[in-house]
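Protein of interest.
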Amino acid sequence: DLWDLRGQIEILSKKLIKAINNDSQEKEQSIRERIRELESQDPEFVYKMELQKMRKAQVEERLDDAREHSNRAMDARSQLPQFNLDGLWVGKYGKHGYEIINVTYTGDTLIAYKVTGDKNVPRGEISFQVNLDPFPPQAVGSAAGILDQKLQPITLTDKAAKKWGTAQLPRYRGLGQVAEPGFTNSQWMDGQLIIIGEEYFSFAWVPIEQQIFFGRPSPELALKMLRESTLASSAIGVKRVWDSPPSMDDDVTVLKQYVSSCLEKTSESVEEDLQGDAFSCIWHGMDTEECYFE
């Protein structure tokens, strides 16, 4: 387990300091070797170190060495969950309901685009982004000390750890986008990406205390929500009760009104599809303590 591995490194680091203070060179050397051995098993540490070596080799124009370190870095990167979130995810955006996002990467920056949106932040816009670079630019100004600090993982209770298969949840600083209706007065605010096992993650808009949990949608659910979003954007008119479907000879406005009423029924079926599984527990985290990570 990665957290056990890092726990061992932390214990050895304390022993190393003690050995240095006691001027015990033989013990110091032994501990250093053991720490290096354990660090080589931590993909996050390996990624960071290989990137550092790659950049140094590039500066010194040792291109073959740079390529070798780059390959090692990418191999380690592929084992890190925060870099394996590509693709479609679905989460519940409060009163706006369930929405789909598409996660992509530009370098080491994770970007989540809205595939289905709402009246505040519509589809095609960025919902949130997270710079995962092990060597992020140094912050300046009065908040520099806070921004440069690495976020500590969230430690779960034994019950929650058993449920989610991990003792701690790593988290990373990011930026979440908010806006007023019509995508007006859009702005970015501090956020946090929280990795929950291999199948889920959440993003928190810290200043407004909003946290959204995401899981992978089934192909059927993704297609249903995409179709619903596309049709909803073109549906107009007021609510109407239909005794029977309109004919193809009816006015296009009537047809759109009928489609809109069908979409309301589809929304209800989406809610039914998402109840009773592990992901619904995450969305409705207040029901069980192990689903709540504040």
Q: What stands out?
A: Confidence is low (pLDDT under 50) at residues 140-147, 276-294. Residues 252-273 form the longest helix (22 residues). DSSP finds nine helices and ten strands in the chain. The first strand starts at residue 87 and ends at 92.
